[in-house]
Design goal:
By secondary structure, the chain is an all-alpha fold.
């Protein structure tokens, strides 16, 4: 199966969220006409500033969009797997819309337990913190 173009990838994210282009426009402030042109390949990959606006609408991290757009190279990432898990876990704890089961009492959690919590969070919210 051929890899998706960036526009096709954005369309797949939007469809996964069951959003119209107008809904993405409302959330991101990026015009639906421009979104359409990106999705159809009429416009090139957007600048990072635009991707930052689009990420919340598509419920992905800006980093994920940057990687897909070719602005970041995986080799540039220097964080270890444990550091990535810890950062993702801290993101989960700080999300005001997600408080289900995130109250930590007493003992320190293992990295495997933190990974499990992040995976549950990703599943429930549709956000991708560990997977690119």
């Amino acid at each position: 199966m051929a890899e998706l173009t960036f526009g096709q990838y954005l369309r797949s994210l939007r469809e996964r969220q069951r959003m119209s282009m107008r809904e993405v426009e409302k959330v991101s402030g990026v015009s639906n006409a421009y979104i359409s042109q990106i999705e159809t390949g009429e416009k090139p990959t957007p600048r990072p500033e635009i991707l930052k606006k689009l990420a919340p609408a598509y419920k992905v991290t800006a980093r994920e969009l940057f990687m897909r757009a070719g602005y970041l190279d995986e080799r540039e990432v220097t964080a270890s797997e444990d550091e990535r898990i810890e950062a993702a876990f801290q993101y989960v704890l700080s999300d005001p819309d997600y408080k289900l089961g995130t109250r930590i009492r007493g003992e320190t959690l293992s990295i495997e337990a933190k990974r499990g919590i992040v995976i549950v969070y990703e599943t429930l919210t549709g956000k991708k913190l560990l997977t690119i």
